[in-house]
Amino acid sequence: MQVNIPLKQVIDNSYDITIDTIEKKHFDKKVAIVTNPKVAGLHLAYLLSKISAKELYIITVPDGEEYKNQASIDLILESLFNHRFNRKSMLIAFGGGVIGDMTGYAASIYQRGIDFIQVPTTLLSQVDASVGGKTGINNAYGKNLIGAFYQPKAVYIDPHFLSTLPKREFGAGVAEIIKMTVTFNKDFFEFLEKADLHDKKVLQEAIKQAVETKAEVVAKDEKEHGLRAALNYGHTFGHVIENETNYKTYLHGEAVAIGIVMANETAVAMGLMSEEEAQRIKNLLQKYNLPTSYVIKDVNNFYETFFLDKKSSDASVTFIVPIGIGGVKITDAVDKELILSVLSKFGEN
Amino acid sequence: MQVNIPLKQVIDNSYDITIDTIEKKHFDKKVAIVTNPKVAGLHLAYLLSKISAKELYIITVPDGEEYKNQASIDLILESLFNHRFNRKSMLIAFGGGVIGDMTGYAASIYQRGIDFIQVPTTLLSQVDASVGGKTGINNAYGKNLIGAFYQPKAVYIDPHFLSTLPKREFGAGVAEIIKMTVTFNKDFFEFLEKADLHDKKVLQEAIKQAVETKAEVVAKDEKEHGLRAALNYGHTFGHVIENETNYKTYLHGEAVAIGIVMANETAVAMGLMSEEEAQRIKNLLQKYNLPTSYVIKDVNNFYETFFLDKKSSDASVTFIVPIGIGGVKITDAVDKELILSVLSKFGEN
């Protein structure tokens, strides 16, 4: 005999992203702000002047991608258990992408899921991690290999935090904006070629456009079965670069910038992009001091590392290659020899 | 400015539970059967005569509730990474509730979620863990405090596995069936008072009824915001008992049996149940050799432990008290003194 368990439901995970100075808020519940010592030192006073709670706790985890691991998750959970957080309690992710990913993941597994909101403090996390619901941690096998799809209840992007952002981190955020324009928005790409993101108004508009573009893509494909994979443009290569350099040499956005150049070379080799278009994209990356070259020591090893990446499946890797500027192709049918020949252009010389 | 991220979606997590001899199946993908040494020794040969895969792996984790922890999850994940499982790969939970909860949780966080199916081998996991999507692990603070809501793709309940089930474990499963009838199905309770679950036909019907009843409740309230809490009848007390005895003295279903008696005493004290009804339930539990008494050494300590339980919120505990037989009340407004006086009946004497 058979019993059907019917679980077809309308689930509303919608939320608002506010791009503005945070308004004062009080939460009538237990709230923990999860952050790192650096962000806390720079900006916690500002956040605490805006946000209060019935019971407020601050949890800091070590700063850096190398601490985006199970030990940090344990540290967060331990603190929540210690202070008897319950299903109605809430977390606030206060920092960059690493803090956002870990806080979201901790929220998703604490007592099978509690609310969290995001206050991203870097340009990268504002335009990227604030939309999409990807949470998780790294491990010895690679990046983001453990995690959950879990949406925040709200995101507050306050331009205030960008005032202290180092130049390199600013550039890393710009790389994600450029990524979005190349794959989905030719007009905005051409606008960026002329405009300057150091102009506050231009920047706020760019954040909005990037967030809206990503939101459109994610709304169509929340769990990355198809279109959403296009957001990985530059990431397939970028992740390998981060892996090879132990996440120490490049900021995520910088690795993505190099990855974008590699994906473009692949597109050129496939006849999908002109060399001139690839050069325009490289120019825009360089305008924000982003790295566009990388010395691959072992081409075969680089290629092998693709298969550890979570976006790869049994015997193929999914490549995101732009079609000119403003278009994108998602394919796992890229010839190995073609990729190796592209990679060998980046080989040691 | 504000951007809305629209994520209102129809999500279909429906699946079938088959209560019958498993039919032969081949999966054209990587599959890992997660089990423990004991179940594997008794029944793996049988399962492997039914199930094959393109690439098949067996992962065993230590047997017992005390190993339902992060270390076992790490062991499972490590093996999946090792063998390069990807998003299209699948897990099979093969064992009792502990195996089901851990395998489901591992599936939920591996690369942000892969498929899993359940082949429960104990009566308890067949009637209880097979419906509801609760997955997770224990930690130093208590039971199931870390986890996710994650549904299997299918459940296969094969009566074959019950043939080797020890008497105590059989009883533990019966406790969950009795739980379901007291709260939701008076007719079936009265049927059980006369029938014998050792009769195969009666048992299969009972499994079906229990699974259907739970499915109805879960479909109405997947994430336990209301009605579903009623399934915790006997569990609020039972969890404390398991906690106090370090999960060593009682099987889960046995602790629930005692918890049912305690919940009934609470109902009697609240005037919701007659002493005669409480006695009938106790009789039915005893018919299957289930424990119905427990010596509470420290009533206040017992009470305090309620608040660590994940079902409790800020300053209250949710109690599930039956209204006679076939009805149930979910309330967090039970007077502390009343509970203490009920508990003191179980005090050391």
Automatic annotation (TrEMBL), chains A, B:
Protein's cellular compartments? Cytoplasm
Gene3D superfamilies linked? 3.40.50.1970, Dehydroquinate synthase-like - alpha domain
| BP GO terms, sorted | amino acid biosynthetic process; aromatic amino acid family biosynthetic process; chorismate biosynthetic process
Give EC number(s), comma-separated: 4.2.3.4
Which positions does UniProt annotate for NAD(+) binding?
Answer: 63-68, 97-101, 121-122, 134, 143, 161-164
A Pfam family hit: DHQS_C
Q: Which pathway, per its entry?
A: Metabolic intermediate biosynthesis; chorismate biosynthesis; chorismate from D-erythrose 4-phosphate and phosphoenolpyruvate: step 2/7
In this chain the 3-dehydroquinate synthase C-terminal domain maps to 173-312
Keyword terms of this UniProt record: Amino-acid biosynthesis, Aromatic amino acid biosynthesis, Cobalt, Cytoplasm, Lyase, Metal-binding, NAD, Nucleotide-binding, Zinc
Q: Tell me which NCBIfam families the record gives.
A: aroB (TIGR01357)
Name of the protein described by the UniProt record: 3-dehydroquinate synthase
The species is: Sulfurimonas autotrophica (strain ATCC BAA-671 / DSM 16294 / JCM 11897 / OK10)
Q: What is the lineage of its organism?
A: Bacteria, Pseudomonadati, Campylobacterota, Epsilonproteobacteria, Campylobacterales
